[in-house]
Design a protein that fits this description.
heterotrimer, A alpha+beta (425), B mainly alpha (281), C mainly alpha (298), A: 425 residues, D-Maltodextrin-Binding Protein, domain 2, 2 domains, four-stranded mixed beta sheet, 14 strands, B: 281 residues, mainly alpha, MetI-like fold, 13 helices
Chain lengths: 425, 281, 298
């Protein structure tokens, strides 16, 4: 009995001591075949296309295998995950999909592998990339990520309804409001204009378009300039949409998908969203297939039509043990051929200028041509290392304002004070 | 007894019945609603008109839970990590509890205080140094990287429960055995251990459930599906563009059902475990 | 050194030494994984330690604490956390007591009732969060649906994102989830009460209310104390629900702590918040330990 008990405990102990190191990262090089891991969204169209691209790449490069690491959909969650990986100095993930606002932050922290040496070694042509996007991906003179696909905020509208009632697409927000109200009444549609007003990064994107459209700004050249009459006017315009019931009260909780649901179901006349919504709205089972149009954002007085620059870029973790193999895959994905394939199958915008005049692409995404200027002129959010903190202050206060807890003056004052504090620390 | 009292009693009984019904209803409704949703089609879910039973009954959500994700792996991870924690915690806690319950030594209060302090810990307070510690030990994204902290934080509960169980065992048995010349080891294995089995089972279950449930550390210390546990997988559950509520609710049911069954069968033990030690005397 | 004399000589170990051997694994683990990192956090909290500026790490004394105490978001979060704790625990206590009283009597189907009461407790918090999040959905949630059908409201409330309702929503879910625990603890306490006391009270002509306040509550006091303190400590640390269900609304201390560490990479400042939370909890724990201290005198 004694022996059995002892053996039992010993075995148990050993078994579980053994699991301590289990589940860890595997050796990534066997027989000269290197396995690289790429963090990406992994469901639906995006995944299918990526899988196909991986198959092609692996067949052309027999010494590399690509493994996908799934990511949550929310950009904030992705950011948090990346941070834990970086601080943990994990070599488990080689390639990371980065939101356009992260390279300055990650680059400054030294978490991204500088890519200039590989760009030179493999003679990668970077001239066809949109310069503005490439600049955001360059930190301290070194390129730290390669632009993969880009995004800009667009105004979607019900082309069929506007035509029916003899309206031209609105150029001002005032105009948009009137058209929306009219059509809402005549067609019995519940919502006039849906956008993203939840307390998250997407609100910063939406709100900046309103603000720039009224001639205001948030942070310019590293200085906080948000406290201006133009910005206040922009905020009031946003609130007015809600107060006049053109935008539903629920808009203060909407992210991209919530807005798209409504618009695609035919429950809204206008929608502010990213280009991805186009393809989905044109699918077979969409109630608004063939009935929509997309245009540049309207403006308020004093401003010019603006779109917030979005988009995702591919970087390599500085803790990766296979950075060269990773770079070869990135070069493949961001090359002309693959970007074209991706654009035609997911509707996501390429980052190469010449593709915007490619006839095959234009057949699938006709608005690339008409909106080319919007994409080229899309404005970036403040590219500062502390952007996450600054944006957090911005969107929590703007959301508070939209809900009605504070007025527009208090809102901009609080943002101004707190952002100045953050920048001075 | 006058008729008024009789009616009063009836009203009281009716009230009690209503309250019982309300309690059961509130406790169980969210789970029922989740199950209800899990069997519906997308159109029926995202509909202004809600139904309390699916008009069209489908199983595809349950299949989709495992497509494009490694959910089976997440379940396995949770089982291994919770199981490992339970075994470690019981082993380590067992010895410690015996010492605390049966032996005299200086510094007992110090040990007890240390243990109690740990049970009051806000885990968030040590997230960063623990993270860096695990990193330096190369334990991130490993089972050990979670089992170790989980064991630490389940020790107070285990030690607490087992100490109480041990105190129940009459000293006389031990005395007699020692007089007969039994070694400590023999006393432990032949007398104490068998008597402590109920306590071990209860503690084991509570530790298992507590670990199964944990979110914060799992979120921070797991990187890939190799070690990701169920709570993190559920938190990260996504569809391409929208939260796939039907599939998510199916995952919820899948994870919850075994737990519910476990709890139902063991409720007596759980109740006695939860309440032991806190309310003695 | 208290050593117990061995009458028969088979064991050479003294009780004290044996105790050390038996306790050391637990103690080592606790010191290494809990206590030592805590000291590290204290150390970080006194440094400028920002991962976005990795080269600037340096000792700065209490500056982080100073900044924290002057920060509006910090005070908002503190208030939210205190409010949440007080309201949540009160509701749990009331509901728990009610359920405990209910289950105390024998009636048909008591087993089923007790089993169903345990259901919320058995479900992992993250999963409860998702279930409730779905019920709270502003367009397709069952709660809005029922309210609208009954005419209580005209259009769906955005429960989780609207600052006016997000706190209540979180509280309700938390109360749902933790009342079973409270109920069980109180039930065990009830079962310690000697029925004879009620008998004598009946003979004296006491009514239900008098019996409740003069017998039940006083005897239940220690149980209530334990349950309340336990739950208060837990409620104060609330994180899972706020993170998963409402994405940081309303912000609580644990949430902004996590946010500062992981979102903003401010390890120094975030650690100051961590220590603040710890001290707050420690004071409570101290009270708890004091009240139970006498139990371990032997």
């Amino acid at each position: 009995m004694k022996k059995i008990t002892f053996i039992f405990f010993a075995v148990m102990f050993l078994l579980f001591a053994g699991t301590i190191f289990a589940g860890g990262s595997q050796d990534s090089a066997e027989n000269g075949v290197v396995t690289i891991s790429m963090a990406s969204g992994t469901v639906g169209h995006e995944l299918d296309v990526l899988k196909e691209q991986i198959a092609v790449f692996e067949s052309e490069n027999s010494d590399i295998k690509v493994n996908l690491v799934p990511l949550p959909e929310s950009a904030t969650e992705r950011h948090d995950l990346y941070v834990t990986w970086f601080v943990g100095q994990s070599s488990d993930v080689d390639i990371l999909m980065e939101d356009i606002i992260w390279p300055p932050e990650f680059g400054a922290a030294g978490w991204l592998k500088p890519l200039n040496e590989y760009i030179e070694k493999y003679n990668m042509d970077t001239t066809d990339f949109f310069q503005g996007i490439l600049d955001v991906n360059t930190v301290g003179g070194e390129v730290v990520s390669i632009p993969w696909f880009t995004d800009a905020g667009l105004m979607y509208y019900r082309k069929d309804l506007l035509e029916k009632y003899g309206y031209n697409p609105p150029v001002t927000y005032e105009n948009l409001k009137n058209i929306a109200q009219d059509i809402m009444e005549k067609e019995g549609i519940k919502n006039g204009f849906v956008w993203q007003g939840a307390s998250y990064e997407g609100l910063t994107c939406s709100a900046l378009e309103f603000i720039w459209g009224h001639g205001g700004d948030f942070i310019k050249d590293g200085r906080v300039v948000i406290n201006s009459p133009n910005t206040i006017a922009a905020l009031n315009t946003m609130k007015d949409f809600i107060d006049s019931n053109v935008s539903p009260k629920g808009v203060i909780s909407y992210q991209e998908e919530d807005a798209r649901h409504l618009f695609q179901n035919g429950d809204s006349v206008f929608m502010r969203n990213w280009p991805y919504a186009w393809k989905l709205a044109q699918e077979e089972d969409s109630p608004v297939k063939g009935k929509i149009g997309a245009m540049a954002n309207p403006t308020g007085p004093n401003g010019e039509s603006s779109a917030t620059l979005g988009g995702w870029n591919l970087g390599i973790s500085n803790y990766s043990e296979n950075s060269e193999a990773a770079f070869r895959f990135i070069m493949f994905l961001t090359g002309k051929e693959q970007q074209k394939y991706k654009s035609m199958n997911t509707g996501q915008n390429p980052t190469l200028k010449t593709l915007y005049s490619d006839p095959e692409i234009l057949k699938v995404n006709p608005f690339y041509e008409s909106l080319y200027d919007v994409f080229v002129g899309a404005k970036g959010r403040p590219g500062h290392v502390k952007y996450a903190e600054l944006s957090n202050v911005f969107y929590t206060n703007v959301n508070s304002f939209l809900v009605g807890n504070i007025n527009s003056e208090e809102c901009v004052e609080t943002i101004e004070t707190e952002c100045k504090t953050i920048l001075s620390n | 007894m006058n008729p008024a009292t009789g009616i009063k009693k009836k009203i009281l009984r009716l009230n009690s019945l209503l309250i019982v019904f309300a309690v059961v209803f509130t406790s169980v409704f969210p789970l029922y609603w989740a199950a209800n949703t899990s069997f519906k089609t997308r159109n029926e879910i995202f509909n202004q008109e809600q139904t309390f039973f699916p008009k069209t009954f489908i199983f595809s959500n349950y299949i989709e839970v495992f497509e494009g994700r490694k959910f089976e792996r997440n379940i396995l991870n949770s089982v291994i990590i919770a199981g490992g924690t339970t075994i470690f915690s019981l082993s380590v806690g067992l010895f410690c509890a015996y010492a605390l319950a049966r032996l005299k030594f200086r510094g007992k209060y110090f040990v007890l205080s240390a243990i109690l302090v740990v049970s009051m810990f806000p885990q968030i307070s040590i997230l960063s140094p623990l993270f860096i510690l695990l990193r330096n030990l190369r334990l991130l994204n490993t089972y050990g990287g979670l089992i170790l902290p989980y064991t630490t934080f389940s020790l107070p509960l285990t030690i607490w429960l087992l100490t109480n169980y041990f105190r129940e065992i009459p000293f006389g048995l031990e005395e007699a055995a020692r007089i007969d010349g039994a070694s400590y080891y023999q006393i432990l294995s032949r007398i104490i251990l068998p008597l402590a089995v109920p306590g071990l089972v209860t503690s084991g279950m509570l530790v298992f459930i507590q670990t199964w449930n944990e979110f914060l550390f799992a979120l921070a210390f797991t990187i890939t599906d190799k070690t990701k546990t169920i709570p993190v997988a559920i938190a990260h559950f996504q569809g391409q563009y929208e939260t796939p509520w039907g599939t998510l609710m199916a995952a919820t049911v899948i994870v919850t059902l075994p737990l519910i069954i476990l709890v139902l069968f063991m409720q007596k033990r759980i109740v006695s475990g939860l309440t032991a030690g806190g309310i003695k005397e | 050194m208290k050593k117990k004399e061995k009458t028969k000589g088979q064991n050479r170990l003294s009780e004290g030494k044996l105790a050390i051997i038996l306790i050391s694994p637990a103690l080592i683990i606790i010191l290494a994984i809990a206590i030592f990192p805590l000291l590290q956090t204290v150390s970080y909290s006194m440094q400028y330690f920002d991962l976005r500026f990795p080269l600037k790490q340096e000792f700065i004394g209490f500056q982080n604490y100073g900044r924290m105490l002057h920060n509006r978001v910090f005070w908002d979060a503190t208030w939210n956390t205190v409010f949440f704790t007080v309201v949540s625990v009160s509701l749990e206590f009331a509901a728990g007591l009610l359920i405990a009283l209910l289950l105390h009597r024998k009636f048909i189907g008591r087993g089923i009732v007790r089993a169903s009461v345990l259901v919320p407790w058995a479900i992992p918090t993250v999963i409860s969060a998702r279930m409730w999040q779905w019920m709270y959905h502003d367009q397709f949630g069952i709660i809005n649906y029922v309210f609208i059908k009954f005419g209580i409201i005209k259009e769906g409330i955005v429960w989780l994102q609207n600052p006016e309702t997000s706190m209540i929503s979180i509280i309700i879910t938390d109360v749902w989830k933790t009342t079973p625990f409270m109920a069980l603890m109180l039930l065990a306490g009830l079962q310690l009460i000697n029925k004879n006391m009620y008998e004598s009270a009946n003979i004296d002509g006491a009514n239900s209310i008098q019996k409740f306040f003069h017998i039940t509550i006083p005897i239940l006091k220690p149980t209530i104390m334990v349950a309340l303190i336990f739950r208060t400590l837990d409620a104060f640390r609330i994180f899972d629900l706020v993170k998963v269900m409402s994405y940081g609304r309303p912000p609580t201390l644990a949430y902004i702590n996590y946010e500062n560490l992981i979102q903003f990479l401010k390890f120094g400042y975030g650690s100051a918040i961590s220590i603040f939370i710890f001290i707050f909890i420690f004071i409570f724990a101290f009270i708890y330990m004091k009240s139970l201290g006498k139990k371990f005198e032997r």
